[in-house]
Amino acid sequence: MILRFSIFGNAYYFTFKFFGLMLFFVLLFSSLGFWQYHRAQEKRLLIQAYAQRKSQQLIGYNRLFNEAEDSRFYSVYLEGRFDNQHPIFLDNKTLDGQLGYEVYTPFLLEGASKAILIDRGWVPANRDRRILPSIEPVQGPLALRGVLNAPPRYFSLGGMTEGANHSFPLRVQYINIKELAPILGLSLPPYILWLDPADIHGFKRQWKVVLMGPEKHVLYTVQWFAFALSLLVIFGVLNLHRVEP
Fold first, then answer.
1. Measured CA distances, 229 to 19, 28, 40, 127, 225 (Å)
2. pLDDT per residue over 59-112, tens digit each?
3. Which site among 66, 107, 139, 157 is 20 to 30 Å from 223 CA-CA?
4. What is the pLDDT of residues 38-66, one digit of tens each?
């Protein structure tokens, strides 16, 4: 198809070579731009919710299992004891460029047959992957404070654990509460607890509400729309021709 027209007495014609290919990529880049924009909005709301809820009154363990209420980012006070027999190591966690694990320990709640996973922080990995870090057991009843959060989500091609053998200490590729509950034989809420940074029963902790800030998503939004616009300009330049006298 050829479109002919004239501007200020000059004749031009416009072809539509590779129109379908151009349209496909323009729509693809635009959709990625809108997706990054919505991700930026989600991150802003998460950071805002964290700032608001963290400073509110402490909540108790009964609310943890109330599915009708969203308890994420609320500060909580818990009494109980660590389940030292079931340490869990989240694999492939880095800190300051060093490879290691995030340590999770079930915390048995006082006066209830329930528990919650405590994220106690980061520990370095041994050069030999067959050797997991040694975690000193914590004895006796304790009172803990921290902030509730959803379990971290990571993309994984395999299962949560390596094979069907669920021996402890347990190395996992991601945290799935529904999978871990029957392995531990415990009732778990859909939250983990970020242990208070001042608590002596944790390790290195650098809590981040979001791994990538909304500013980066905005930057990616601009980049994807710039790609779409650039493609339109290139398509127009390549297909616009002037009719020589």
1. 14, 12, 21, 48, 6
2. 777 777 776 677 888 888 889 999 999 999 999 888 888 999 999 999 998 776
3. 157
4. 999 988 888 888 877 777 777 777 777 77
**Environment class of residue 237 by beta-carbon count within 10 Å: exposed (0-12), middle (13-18) or buried (19+)?**
exposed
Q: Please check whether residue 117 is in contact with residue 88, taking contact to mean a CB–CB distance below 8 angstroms.
A: yes
The answer to whether the beta carbons of residues 29 and 227 sit under 8 Å apart is yes
Strands (E) across the chain are located at: 2-7, 10-15, 75-82, 88-95, 98-109, 115-124, 142-149, 170-172, 192-195, 240-242
Helix and strand counts by DSSP (H, E) for the chain: 3, 10
pLDDT in tens, 198-213: 899 999 988 887 777 8
Phi, psi of 155 (to 5 degrees): -80, 130
Cα–Cα distance for residue pair 75/15, rounded to 1 Å:
63
Round to whole Å and give the CA distance between 62 and 60: 6
Per-residue DSSP letter, 2: E
CA 244 – CA 189 distance, rounded (Å): 75
Percentage with pLDDT > 90 across the chain: 33
CA angle at residue 167 from 161 to 169, to 5 degrees?
85
At position 135, the amino acid (one-letter code) is: I
User: With contact defined as beta carbons under 8 Å apart, do 144 and 107 qualify?
Assistant: yes
pTM tops 0.85: no
User: Residues with Cβ < 8 Å from 150, sequence gap 6 or more?
Assistant: 72, 190, 191, 192
- pLDDT at residue 163 in the model: 66
